[in-house]
Write a structure and sequence with these properties.
By secondary structure, the chain is mostly helical. It has one domain. 72% of the residues lie in helices and 0% in strands. It has four helices and no strands. Helix 1 runs antiparallel to helix 4 and helix 2 runs antiparallel to helix 3. The chain is elongated, with a radius of gyration of 17 Å.
Length: 172
């Protein structure tokens, strides 16, 4: 029993910081969505700051996963690698879907359309955060190394596009 508790604590030490970064991203998606409902310079400035914050937190999560992967072996190492790929796909959503669609300024005539597209992408990003948090919790609590997978049709590695969906998760 003591050995199992020690193993759970070591898994928690490895992945708890990653979970914290992902929770921050999830909260930021909510805040950004709220700010984009109003067309103002204040909202635009905050939206840019929120994008930077999400990018920074996901980058930190990916780097922490890289360190955790180096301290893992076998299936756990593969799990860490899959989590890292999942986080990288989330970073690409921010770069390819959110940053590109951000209105140029608060007087952008297409503010409503662009803000609506961003809010839809933020909702998807938030659900991906939930999937990632659930995978980390399952791994910590039950030693189930079931990582969320990147959507079918997406390439692996640095060029991955698209995103994981809860229905595409592998089951043990």
């Amino acid at each position: 029993a003591a050995k199992k508790q020690h193993e759970a604590n070591s898994r928690r030490r490895l992945l708890e910081p990653v979970k914290g970064f992902v929770i921050r991203v999830e909260r930021t998606t909510e805040n950004m969505s709220d700010y984009l409902t109003h067309q103002s310079s204040y909202s635009h400035a905050h939206a840019e700051n929120f994008l930077h914050s999400m990018n920074s937190n996901l980058r930190s999560a990916r780097r922490t996963l890289h360190v955790a992967r180096m301290h893992s072996k076998g299936d756990k190492r593969d799990f860490m690698s899959n989590l890292s790929n999942y986080v990288q796909a989330m970073e690409e959503v921010i770069r390819d879907s959110l940053r590109v669609n951000l209105p140029h300024n608060n007087t952008d005539p297409n503010w409503g359309v662009k803000a609506g597209n961003i809010r839809n992408n933020l909702f998807q990003l938030k659900s991906r955060c939930g999937v990632l948090i659930r995978s980390i919790d399952d791994f910590i609590d039950a030693d189930r190394a079931v990582a969320p997978t990147i959507a079918a049709g997406a390439t692996s590695g640095a060029g991955a596009r698209g995103g994981p969906s809860p229905s595409s998760r592998r089951r043990p």
